[in-house]
Amino acid sequence: MTQVYTHAAFTIAAKRAPDAHTGFLHPRSLPSGTTVVEVRDEAGETRQCILTFQVPERDEDQNFLDTRGWTLQEYILSRRLLIIGSLTTVWSCRKEREGNCDGWSLDRKRGDPFRFEATWIWSDKTVFKNTHRLDAIAFFGTHPEYDHPRPDDRSIRLEWKYLVELYTRRNLTRPTDRILAISGLAQIFSRIRGGKYAAGLWVNDLPQALLWETSSGASCPRPSNQGPSWSWTAINRAVTCDFGNGRNVSSVDSIEYELDQPGAPFGSVKCGTLRVNGPALDLEWKCSRSTSHRKNPGGHHLKYLTADGGYINANIKFCPDAEESDSDWATVTLLAIKTHELTAGLVLRKKNDTDCSRLGFFNARLRENNPNSYCQLPMVKEWGSRTFTIV
């Protein structure tokens, strides 16, 4: 499918159709809160003007295609798009992404992957002047032989981060397609940046690429067959990715994974193992959903055993990856990945005698980050380094 969309002359996106059985060329209806007024122009001719009492972007943003996972890469890989929406018809191409719109002029922010300002800052020195970074990446990913200046690796990393965050907010009929419905984009990105790709993460970006966290309020149970726990493809929630400033304090010693289809390097993964070495601290954790409240969503409790034998509240931000059943106190481990103004990392739990799995993400304002912090956990330099096998 990647080849189909990248080589198509143009793609028609029938956004106003709610399903494959409904047409999209019938007359449009006015959005709610509008009225038609006749006005006379300077030449004396009578024209119709439509007044609205509420901005109609919301109606356009509820188009079905903007909520589906598979359509994101189809949208981005297409060189030219004729987008037929509920209120507008838009022409969008790599040369010009804005302004070619009939009917309503909408300042839309949701659904459209080109919604944010991301002009390639060095494009003045190339034939891609004022081109969106996504378009430059898609071009060079499709035509790697062209000898022109191209986006730097940091820009490409940022675009991947934004795409993952946008993509994971969309829906899939089959949750197991989570890794598959973005594989075409991964293939394009790989041609311009190189490096191995494993279960939605770029190996060159490790360990920082492990710092994704769930961003949606509703928890879902953790699937059993969607990939390794360290990958965002293993859960069915929206995520945000941390590619900010900071110093890596952990290292990935090795990564091993087995593809479902050996000939599909950007496809699903049967299993995967990371060996990570870094500062680690053991805590006690339990889940009691009956105690869930605004400051403690999900009813998760974390405490630390001090040197004098007493327990203190961990006072860290903990984002579990999935819904957890009620449990008694058990030992979990904080593995620090990066430290800056906050220390961020993974919360691990033992799976068996040799392996751990990811339970969630944490960040903490430790005393080394801020001497006035209310978090009384030891500083990262006091944690002690350990090696973990994460599956």
TrEMBL record:
UniProt name for this protein: Heterokaryon incompatibility domain-containing protein
Species this protein is from = Gibberella intermedia (Bulb rot disease fungus)
